[in-house]
Amino acid sequence: MDLKTAIRTYQFAERAKSELIVGSQLTTALIQFPLQEKPGGKRMLVMVLESIRSELEFAYGDTGLIEFKKAIDHLNEAISLTESMELGAASERMSRAVSAVTTAAQAAWDTLKEHELL
């Protein structure tokens, strides 16, 4: 990975990882919502997850790294599961997305370390 791509990848991956963790926490929190609040909570959560997906799509478009594509695929599954209110499974897919972006971040980290930037 060239240095310019490593810098962009690391920035994208760290931001995506943070957003995905928040999305996962919100998914888990929705489980505890009172029944009458779940529909509104679900709509809001899906909007948040779609926003995260847009960020991942931008990262994938800019870097072309397959790890970002994998994260998008896992997040698409999580969104679908959230819409079906299968929140435990959705949270698990979010974890897979976090793993994918962590892999991208690690590859970038290695390149940045080789160039003594970290």
Report on the structure:
The radius of gyration is 15 Å and the shape is elongated. It is mainly alpha-helical and 118 residues long. The model has no long low-confidence stretch (mean pLDDT 95). The protein has helices spanning 3-31, 38-63, 66-83, 87-114. The protein is built from 4 helices and no strands. Helix content is 86%, strand content 0%.
Which tags fit this structure?
mainly alpha, 4 helices, 118 residues, elongated
Summarize the SSE layout with pairings.
Elements: H1 3-31, H2 38-63, H3 66-83, H4 87-114
Helix pairs in contact: 1-2, 1-4, 2-3, 3-4
Briefly say what this structure is:
It contains four helices and no strands. By secondary structure, it is mainly alpha-helical.
Number of strands: 0
Percent range for helical residues? Answer: over 70%
Instruction: List the helices and strands in order.
Output: HHHH
Describe the largest sheet.
none
Give the helix tally.
4
SS strand fraction: under 5%
Structural class: mainly alpha
Report the uncertain regions.
Answer: none
* Overall mean confidence score, pLDDT: 95
Distance between the termini: 16 Å
What shape does the CA trace take? elongated
| C-alpha-based Rg, rounded | 15 Å
